[in-house]
Amino acid sequence: AGMNGTAIENFACVIFNISFMNCTWHVGRTATEDTQYFLYWRPSKKEDVTECQNYIKDNCGRNIGCQFQNVTIENKNAYFLVNGSRSGQNIHISDYIIVEKLTPPLNITVNCTEASHRCSIWWQPPRTSHVKKSSCFKYEIVIENK
């Protein structure tokens, strides 16, 4: 299954502006300069696995991240696999499930009435690549007096 300590660490993906995604990771603790990593993903169980086309590299030329464009995730889970090799030997394989991190709500409107000392607040759900029901969102409002 590969050499101990060669698997990537601190794998994270961030989806922003609905369709752009950056994934990054740290090189394994015992990985040498000739270790190379490859990222594969599929947006849903229905779709084929795709390798990263735009790797981010470290000073040694090792892949330490990937940038994706036109990302769509049809359900709540995307599937990731990072594997690789070192001088012809396999490294440990790591796979991950990542969900989209959402942006704040859109078009926030506040209407306050001095006479009643009340405010009404409206907003629209954040744009997302895969959540279709607005009832899936929970909101927190923090009110500050200035």
Helix content: under 10%
How many β-strand runs? Answer: 11
* Rounded radius of gyration (Å): 21 Å
CATH structural fold name of the largest domain: Immunoglobulin-like
State the end-to-end CA separation: 60 Å
CATH homologous superfamily grouping of the largest domain: Immunoglobulins
> How many discrete domains?
2
The secondary-structure element order is: EEEEEEEEEEE
The CATH class of the largest domain is identified as Mainly Beta
Q: What's the tally of helices?
A: 0
Shape: elongated
> What structural class is derived from the secondary structure elements?
mainly beta
Name of the CATH architecture of the largest domain: Sandwich
Determine the strand fraction and express it as a percent band: 35-45%
Structural commentary:
- This protein is mostly beta strands.
- The chain folds into two domains: 8-100, Immunoglobulin-like, CATH 2.60.40.10; 106-136, no CATH class.
- The protein contains no helices and eleven strands.
- It has strands at residues 9-16, 20-26, 35-42, 50-51, 55-57, 63-68, 78-86, 89-90, 94-98, 106-113, 118-124.
- The strands form three sheets. Strands 3, 4, 7, 8 and 9 form a five-stranded antiparallel β-sheet that branches. The chain has a four-stranded antiparallel β-sheet with strand order 1-2-6-5, with no helix packed on it. Strands 10-11 form a two-stranded antiparallel sheet.
- It starts with 8 loop residues before the first strand and ends in a 22-residue tail after the last strand.
- The relative contact order is 0.21.
- The mean pLDDT is 80.
- GO terms for molecular function: cytokine receptor activity.
- It is a single-pass type I membrane protein.
- This is CSF2R factor.
- Residues 10-97 form the Type I cytokine receptor cytokine-binding domain.
- Keywords: Glycoprotein, Membrane, Receptor, Signal, Transmembrane, Transmembrane helix.
